[in-house]
UniProtKB/TrEMBL annotation, chain A:
EC number(s) reported in the record: 3.6.3.41
Entry keyword set: ATP-binding, Cytochrome c-type biogenesis, Hydrolase, Membrane, Nucleotide-binding, Translocase, Transport
UniProt name for this protein: Cytochrome c biogenesis ATP-binding export protein CcmA
Gene Ontology molecular function, alphabetical: ATP binding; ATP hydrolysis activity; transmembrane transporter activity
UniProtKB/TrEMBL annotation, chain B:
Organism: Roseivivax jejudonensis
Key words of the record: Cell inner membrane, Cell membrane, Cytochrome c-type biogenesis, Membrane, Transmembrane, Transmembrane helix, Transport
Biological processes, Gene Ontology terms: cytochrome c biosynthetic process; cytochrome complex assembly
Membrane topology: Multi-pass membrane protein
First-listed, main subcellular location of the protein, grouped into a coarse class: membrane
InterPro entries per UniProt: Cyt_c_biogenesis_CcmB, Cyt_c_CcmB_bac
Protein name listed in UniProt: Heme exporter protein B
GO cellular component, one term: plasma membrane
Length: 203, 218
């Protein structure tokens, strides 16, 4: 469903990671670990197709549903309007399962601008359920979530995996997804800085 | 696509959406001109088509930086780029939404504001028609400029500097069509050239804007 072969990525023309290879099949999840600034976000953005990889091949990009640091919510739209828009953008209809999965049903008519940070995050994660895409690529999904919401999130990921989905998650905390979830430490793939990395500095 | 258009229109008319900003600016400019240049009917009616066109153009310019900047800041643009919608289509819908919320009200208001400037009677239909043909080009060119400056902090100044030269042909042919109409002269040539500018911008710039957007998102 998602396959990376010997991928290198750069941030601002400076290579940060190289030689990253991984493959995700149905029901598989992989957790990315590494210290701040080690290139997790850059790698995930390349996987989502938001920036080109320096080298290597990324297969299965069309399966990816991406959730980054920003939730992409509009403050003056209600919770259900926000979700319905993303459902329409991804060509699906049903938003009720997403509302139930993240316990948002009571907030349905509330403006997204009036939600707390954790509620916004839950809405941002609920968006993944309405995309209908099989591979979730998540960048620090548990930021500003309380323990109960993290449990909701972990349950949603487990359900997604049980339905034959896959997930690639950059996180620092233990999500309790089970022992079979793989872990990739990106620090081992840190790029050696080449002496001359192009002429970007002069532009 | 339709969902994106509805969302943009809903965002524009709700609180903080900026709908009416361009229209209010247009109104202020045209109302202030008689105070600035004096109330003589002859002088006002001579400059009315040009003033109305310049006012409409500047009013359009005012709301351009909102087209992508807001979506960029809250991460929507990243997520839209990963959605199964073509970026060219997203850009075209954004330009259409900008035209409906900014250009179309200007077109509708211009004849009424022509009264303030003693626009001669035969000029009204031509002013309306020239704005109707010309304002889509203003929105599409502006969307391209907004795509170019989307990642920049306070890119508004750069956006204006980039877009204003591109607006000049539209202004020349649009104001000329309105002026000739007001003077009772034939208007076919400037109107056709204005339509040509609009058609060219509509056909080419969504692709250019999508290309620069891909670069800006990196």
């Amino acid at each position: 469903m998602l396959e990376l072969i010997d991928v290198s990525v750069a941030r601002g023309s400076v290579p940060v990671l190289e030689g990253v290879s991984l493959a995700l099949g149905p029901g598989e999840a992989l957790v990315l670990r590494g210290p701040n600034g080690s290139g997790k976000t850059t790698l995930l953005r390349a996987v989502a197709g938001l920036q080109p990889a320096l080298a290597g091949r990324i297969g299965g990009q069309e399966n990816v549903a991406y959730a980054g640091h920003a939730d992409g919510l509009k403050a003056s739209l209600s919770v259900s309007e926000n979700l319905r828009f993303w459902a329409a953008a991804f060509g699906t209809r049903d938003i009720s399962t997403a509302l139930v999965a993240y316990d948002l049903s009571a907030l349905e008519v509330r403006w997204a601008g009036n939600l707390s940070a954790g509620q916004k995050r839950r809405l941002g994660l609920a968006r993944l359920l309405v995309t209908g895409r099989p591979v979730w690529v998540l960048d620090e999904p548990t930021v500003s979530l309380d323990a109960a919401s993290v449990a909701l999130f972990a349950a949603a990921v487990r359900a997604h995996l049980a339905q034959g989905g896959a997930a690639l998650i950059a996180t620092h905390i233990d999500l309790g997804l089970g022992a079979e979830v793989g872990v990739l430490d990106v620090a081992r793939h840190r790029a050696r800085f080449p002496a001359a990395s192009g002429d970007e500095a002069f532009l | 696509m339709r969902a994106l258009l509805w969302r943009d229109l809903a965002l524009a008319v709700r609180a903080g959406g900026g709908f009416g900003l361009g229209l209010a600016f247009f109104l202020i400019v045209t109302v202030l001109v008689p105070f600035g240049v004096g109330p003589e009917t002859a002088r006002l009616s001579a400059i009315a088509p040009g003033i109305l066109w310049i006012g409409a153009l500047l009013a359009c310019l005012l709301s351009l930086d909102r087209i992508f900047a807001l979506d960029f800041e809250d991460g929507t643009l990243d997520l839209l780029a990963t959605a199964p919608l073509p970026l060219e289509g997203i850009v075209a819908v954004k330009a259409l939404a900008h035209w409906i919320t900014t250009g179309l009200p200007l077109v509708a208001a211009a004849p009424a504001l022509g009264i303030f400037l003693s626009l001669p009677g035969p000029g009204y239909p031509w002013l309306f028609l020239s704005l109707l043909i010309g304002t889509p080009a203003l929105s599409v060119i502006g969307t391209f400029g907004a795509a170019l400056t989307v990642g920049l902090k306070r890119g508004g100044l750069l956006l204006s500097l980039l877009v204003l030269p591109l607006y000049v042909p539209t202004l020349i042919f649009g104001a000329e069509a309105a002026r000739r109409g007001a003077a009772g002269l034939p208007v076919e040539t400037p109107l056709l050239l204005l339509a040509g500018v609009s058609a060219g911008a509509l056909a080419l710039l969504p692709f250019a804007a999508a290309a620069v957007l891909r670069v800006s998102l990196r």
